[in-house]
Amino acid sequence: MAVSFRARICDFFLIYLLICVLSRYEVTSDRTSLKIYQSLQADCFCFKRLNGTHEFGCSSDRTGNVGVVHVVSSVADVQHIIKDGPDMKYVAVLGMSFFNMGNMTLLQDSGRVSGVIVIRDRALPAEGFSPDQSCPNRNMGMYEEDADYASCATGNWNPQNPALNMFFVHWHFPIFMLDNETSIDVIVNKCYGTFNRHQTTNKALCAAQLKSRMSAAKDSITCLRRSNIASTLHPVRYCDPLSGRNIISTLYPTYNNKTVDNRSVIIVGARMDTFSLFDNIAPGADSSVTGFVTLLSVARLLKLMSGNAEPVPPKNVLFAIFNGEAFDYIGSSRIVYDMEKGQFPAVPVTSGLAPATLGLHHISRFVEIGQVAPHTPDVYLHVDPLSTKDAKTKASVSQLVADLKAAASKDWAKLTVHDVSSTLPLPPSSVQRFLKKDKNIAAVYISNHNSSFENRYYNSMFDTVENINGTAATLGDVAEHLTKLAAVVASTVYKELTGTEPTDVPLQKLRVKELLECYVVNASCALFHEVLDREATRPLKSNPLSLYISVDPTGSMIHPSARLTKLVLSYFTGTVVENVSRRNCSSHTVLDKVYEFDWMDGPESNSTGLCVKSSTTFTLARSPAFESEDVTIEEYSTWTESVWEEASLQIFVMPSWKQEITTLTLGVVIFLISLALVHVVNSEAAILFTPRALLFRLHLATFMFGPFIIDSL
User: Fold this and answer.
1) Are 650 and 208 a contacting pair, CB within 8 Å?
2) Residue 422 CB contacts under 8 Å (≥ 6 apart), including other chains
3) Mean pLDDT for the chain?
């Protein structure tokens, strides 16, 4: 027993010395990982989204997908990966000229690809690049049950291009995009160029690990059901409904104690959102920005032309910027749903003043501004062939078209405006959701295209400032075109309101160029700084805002693009409240439900700030399909976004087959020697573990580890 006790004391001392040595040199897994892996840019990756029937996008295995890096610079490289090269897993590195549906389908079908890295080129692909469908939102518009127009029967709106439908595919591997020059150099030259260019299985190869694990699977209905089941025991979310905010404002305030006449409201609308295949990239320069920038300018012009009219005209204007329209009309569907429920713009209050409740029967006209970048100088007016079968509606639409064309011919405009054939349906547009429920609304959709999009980068990462024929230095031409178009719409709406032509159209007071700069060039722009409260917000980034609708799991998140756009619309349509401090400004909103009050920094000439009062507000842009079990998924959007773990992209050197065999063999040999040594020591334990032997082991340990202990002290 004495010997055993002494042996334990000695072993404890040896373990203590070993721990001290390891602590001294901080041998940690993180340090080891840094020596093996090199991390690259990982903020732009494909993620998974789902609808009521399918899942789309990308996901990795839980621990990430690993493959040998191979840069594709020719068709032969594609063949090397899918068939001709060694039988192993590859990570294909594609330039934009090779990133297309044809190559991506080949890579997926081969079963030899574990991931794709896309090298972004700032130049626009000559053949176009739109990952949306040829008939966007085909299942949720007003024509899906009409034999003549369903599924773009008269022709596709989105022309053929190399990326068509890429967004609507379930990719079985992760896809990352690199636009950081350092990361591109590392993956192309230091990784592939050094190790893999002359690829053999007899030498070390550079491999990549792509990790973007998604939690959602199958479809939105299944995913949300799993989340609801899990929440009863443990709060786990697998996906969230796409959700954001619509932005609305009335030219004149409405009150719940005053009747709003039927067919007395004119809607001027535009969509706000867009998407792309990758997270954090959704510029939407022509897909959405040109439309809602023109709408913001229309609102500013009408405010300047109408002023504080007394008495208030019997008609009113509702400005509406819809969010989530790229995903089966989420925003417009929700507004129509709320109108039918008698809950627009908010649930009615039982006491006190509040905005009047509006319904579909209040709407007389609907002017929607779509893609209007001047790819050509022409402007096109689209009308609905179904609602115009009614003689009264047709007469109203014809008058609206005539007024728009008359305004466009004025000396201050000189725009070339064309009627689109009455046999064509409306393009993908928010107004379709209104006409689906009420065909008595006279609607016109304004665009820069006839029977198919001029925008070859619709809903893609390439829908940037370059796509709208502009750069930071040459936005003036685009701004001039949009200014004239805004004036045409404002002049027409003013005539609808008052019955008279405007006496003055102050184009010089519009700030279209500044708006374009803010949304497609630099979000840290002067106009955005004017509408923000500097003390209550973080500094803006210099890159353009993402216009993807995103998700709102807490119910209180407002996307920066929506918040800034709401403030700009408030700034353009509101009035300044004099002699109000920053603290008192926000308290007015609690007392006055008709208006909202926002504190803004104002122009540079104002050193104290402004309290702006306006009727501009948010409404929820979340599909009605998620609000009630009575709502069918066939009627409304069911888009959700997967929850994901932190994404990462790393490269490392993978040993050759011979090195792995050598390492394995050496390990087996050492293991066998250790077994033999343990057997010998165990058989001679009575001799080896005498008190003298224990003393010798203690002296030996002190000799070996003593200097390290002293050094650490």
Assistant:
1) yes
2) 383, 385, 388
3) 90
Distance between CA atoms of 262 and 174, rounded to whole angstroms?
53
Q: Please name the residues in contact with 509: beta carbons below 8 A apart, sequence gap of 6 or more.
A: 300, 304
3 state SS of 11: helix
Q: Taking a C-beta distance cutoff of 8 angstroms, is the pair 50, 216 a contact? A: yes
Query: Can you name the CATH fold of 243-520+538-564+619-638?
Result: Aminopeptidase (3.40.630)
Place of tokens 């991506």: 104
Residues 6+ apart with CB under 8 A from 505: 301, 305, 410, 412, 487, 490, 491
Q: Which of 303-312, 428-437, 692-701 has the highest mean pLDDT?
A: 428-437
Contacts of 409 (CB under 8 A, 6+ apart): 415
Residue-by-residue DSSP string for 667-694: HHHHHHHHHHHHHHHHHTHHHHTSHHHH
Does residue 610 contact residue 243 with C-beta atoms inside 8 Å? no
**Choice between 712 and 66, residue whose per-residue pLDDT is larger:** 66
Measured in degrees and rounded to the nearest 5, phi and psi for residue 580 equal: -125, 135
pLDDT over threshold 50, residue 315? yes
Enumerate the domain spans of the chain.
38-213+647-660, 243-520+538-564+619-638
Beta bridge partners of 612: 576, 598
Confidence (pLDDT) at 428: 98
CB 507 within 8 A of CB 412: yes
State the DSSP string of 165-228. Answer: TGGGSB-SS-EEEE--HHHHHIIIIIIIIIIITT--TTS-EEEEEEE--B---S-HHHHHHHHH
How far is C-alpha 253 from the geometric centre of its chain's CA atoms?
Answer: 33
- Written as one letter, the residue type at 152 is C
